Amino acid sequence: MNLILLGPPGAGKGTQAKKMIDALQIPQISTGDILRAAVKDGTEMGLEAKKYMDAGKLVPDSVVIGIIDDRLKEEDCVKGFILDGFPRTVEQAASLGEMLEKGGRSIDHVVSIDVPDADLMARLTGRWMCTCGASFHKLFNPSKVDGICDLCGAKLYQRDDDKEAAIKVRLENYHKQTAPLIDFYSTRGLLRGVPGTGAPDEIYAAIMAVLNG
Question: Would residue 50 show up in a list of annotated catalytic residues for this protein?
Answer without folding.
Answer: no
